[in-house]
Amino acid sequence: MHVGENSLDKALPFAYPVPWWGLWRFVAGGELLVPGNPDISTAVSAAAAVGYYKVSIVTRTKDREILLKRAAQSVLSQSFKDYCWVVVNDGGDDSVVRRVISGCGIDENRVEIISNKYSLGMEAASNLGVNAVKSEYIVIHDDDDSWAPEFLANTVQFLEENPDHLYGGVVSHSTYISELIRDDEVVEIQRKPYQNRLVGVDLEAVLDKNLFPPISFLFRRSIYDSVGGFDETLPVLGDWLFNLEFLLRANIGVLPKSLAFYHHRDRSDATAPEYRNTVVDQVSLHQQYTPIVRNRFLRRNLNQSAVSLGLTLQAQAVESAGAPVSPRQAAAALPAVQQLSRGESDLAWAIAAANAALADRRFSAIIRNRKLSPVPPNGTWSVVLPLLRKLNVDVPPPHDFDDGAYLAANPDVAAAVRDGKQKSGFAHYIMHGRHEGRARPSGEYRAPAPSGGVAPSARPNHVGPVFDSLPMVRSSHKADGFERVLHVAHHEWHGIRQASAYSPGHKLLISAHETLTEDEKRAIAENAARLGVERICFQGYSENMDALLLYLRSVLGPTIKYYMISHVTTAQFDHRFEMVVIAKLLNRLRFGVLDGIASVKPGFHRAIEGFWPGTIINYAPNIPMVSGRRSAHAEVYAPLDVGWRKNLFTNIMAGSLARNVDVVKTANFPNGLESIHDLRKLRLVGYLRGKDLLDEMARSSLTLIATLAECQPMTQLESLAVGTPALTGPLEVEEFANDPLVTLCTTSHLDNPALLAKDIEKIVEVLRGDSDGMLQMIAQHLDRRHSVATRNYADFLEL
Fold it and tell me: Nearest-CA neighbor of 239 among 349, 382, 90, 127?
């Protein structure tokens, strides 16, 4: 371990024409000197002066022992070992740093400590650390952030495999972790993906806002030297200006793996001053310096073609003819004249909406929410967003946000708005889209007309039919004869859509609410004929689906047969619509419009005459089961909606009571439960879909789906596909009556948290005792399930 100290008895000479750290020179004896200033010196070992490492990890710290210990474990856990960890104690207690480093277990030959008598500031501390040792690559590891063990190995490999003329740096996807420090313990409150839709790093996008945290960014020293290091005159946002200057000189690649953890103490009032985040505690300073940093960058570089040409011609590029772009790309391609509209007032707009709602409350609401106070003008997102949710405020889009363009670019959000799950595109953007890396469209923005001069559709947000889209076919199973099958499902109905996606055969998605045009129906018929379809299987039913059935019956030949699969249970008959649908289906079957009706609910034909006597078995996604992703902690995950059928509260209570469970993760917060039940184990991960959902399941020891009414839950099958057992109520699928996995993972204690906790403990104990055995049991069940599913589908469809 190499330790030095900076003694500063007078002000630093910031009047130098270049940053003072840039004037350092290595001299004999291993001492770093600043010419002309004998008061600044750092004694370092000769090894530091001549040693060379692949990676320099620079950590700035000041009196944050709890967090520095976590940072040390983050560095220690790295599978890649050719690094030097440079810890810059920026004016804090030197003994604290020494104590943490000496006890952390890292090879002392790979640690350099620089201790400043007085604080130099974040960027100066970074430069000090970067220049303390020689290396090929650099990464800033703030003392409150952390990495997955593979971060360095994966990012170094990325840059090693890509020549320096292609990429000067690489960022990984990140996870945002909200936490509190209670006594001497860090308590995690929530985690969610952060900028994990990022696929590329463009200069224009970073000029709009900083897209990634320092903890996720590994870069080449040669580019750092070309930039000249971090700007030490900035109290905040120095990393943003550095990233902008970096992109003028080199590209930044994206590694689509969540390997960096971006930790925030979102409540400054509940955090000791030394443990606060600047982005939370100094939000007004960030707002003040945002235009300063952007203007400084532009003034420095407007004479460079990379900046001036891009800003000047950007509008023309948007309108120029060329290859068609996706709606998401189009929404991101904003004209240069609208660069002034960057969403920086979104927070103020949201605060105003929250305060207006508080001021407009009825007397009963005032009594109910009497503890709520207006949000101050310098309030943060972590304060205003929970308040908007609590008050159920419908925040109108501001004048500089194009809600229609956002929905057009994000069909999943458009579907959520139609279903009432989101209030508007803007509401989704401020709640989720900002962290997901979705483009923020300006209010003046209008998407260019399609190539060829065709006028835009009169239904700009219309969700049309889609054949064999990648999300619907990439995880499908294959089976002989099913190339002649077309499954028809709805964009908006997630569970049924996924059941269709994993089944063998072609896929068609239509809207459940928007009427198909005659042109769309004609195109569907033509595509079905071109694909050689002989069996059309409707998954779920709607008025739109019924209209399509009648149309296809009228225009396609007699060799094509039509079938329908119901995913409803009798518990849902309190919605009269479900009974109306079944009555219509039976009518279509009676008159020969449908050739068969089946259900995924075992024994449904015994309750409703006319249904096929077998059971349709759902497939799990056809994806590789990769081991090694499970958390070292025993985490159980309840991806359940709120509502009595989904039994969210009982599942959460049972997980909390299970003695061998460390963390209970949930998609929805059980409002009110905190007043009567200990929720210290609870972590809100939010509503996840697609890869994010599968990744969360893969990290878990068990998925909780002990619901009160269920057929064959797709979340169970998605969990099994990634190797995680799933606990359900009795599903009564006869084909798996004696299956060991089903026996282990079925509970009858659906309304008794204490007994349900025992079932959870049993499964977690089996998994922890023989993880490989559990994976083998799951794999054997899935093999059998898919064989039975193919057989039953083939029998029903008369293949």
Answer: 127
pLDDT of residue 298: 77
pLDDT at 377: 60
- Secondary structure class of 302 (helix, strand, coil): coil
**pLDDT in the model for residue 31:** 35
Name the helix (H) or strand (E) containing 259: strand 252-264
Interacting residues of 132 by C-beta distance below 8 A, sequence separation 6+:
32, 42, 44, 48, 56, 86, 112, 114
Can you state the percent helix, strand and coil of the chain, rounding each to 5? 45, 15, 40
- In the block, tokens 């499954």 appear at 487
Give residue 43's pLDDT: 37
- Mark whether 539 and 671 lie in a shared domain: no
Structure tokens at 747: 């509970």
Give the DSSP H/E element, type plus range, for residue 52. Answer: strand 52-61
Task: Note the Cα 395 to chain centre separation in Å.
Answer: 23
Question: Can you give the CATH number for the domain in which 173 is found?
Answer: 3.90.550.10
- Burial (CB < 10 A; 0-12, 13-18, 19+), residue 675, is exposed
Please check whether residue 223 lies inside any domain of the structure.
Answer: yes
Q: Which of 641, 636, 703, 686 is nearest to 192 (CA)?
A: 686
The answer to whether the beta carbons of residues 285 and 229 sit under 8 Å apart is no
Burial of 1 (0-12, 13-18, 19+ CB in 10 A): middle
Q: In this predicted model, what pLDDT tens digit does every residue of 686-708 receive, in sequence order?
A: 878 888 889 999 999 999 999 98
| φ and ψ of 637, to 5 deg | -130, 125
Residue 795 within a domain: no
> Is the separation of the CB atoms in 211 and 201 below 8 Å?
yes
Q: Where is 771: in which H helix or E strand?
A: helix 771-796
Residue 512 lies in a domain: yes
| Sites in the chain below the pLDDT cut of 50 | 5-50, 268, 270, 279-282, 305-342, 361-370, 443-458
Whether the model pTM is above 0.90: no
pLDDT at res. 406: 86
Closest CA to 755 of 613, 658, 669, 645: 658
pLDDT for 337: 26
- Number of domains composing the chain: 4
Nearest to 215 by CA among 242, 175, 188: 175
Examine the domain organization and report whether 643 and 591 are in the same domain: no
663 and 774, same domain (yes or no) = yes
Per-residue pLDDT at 345: 66
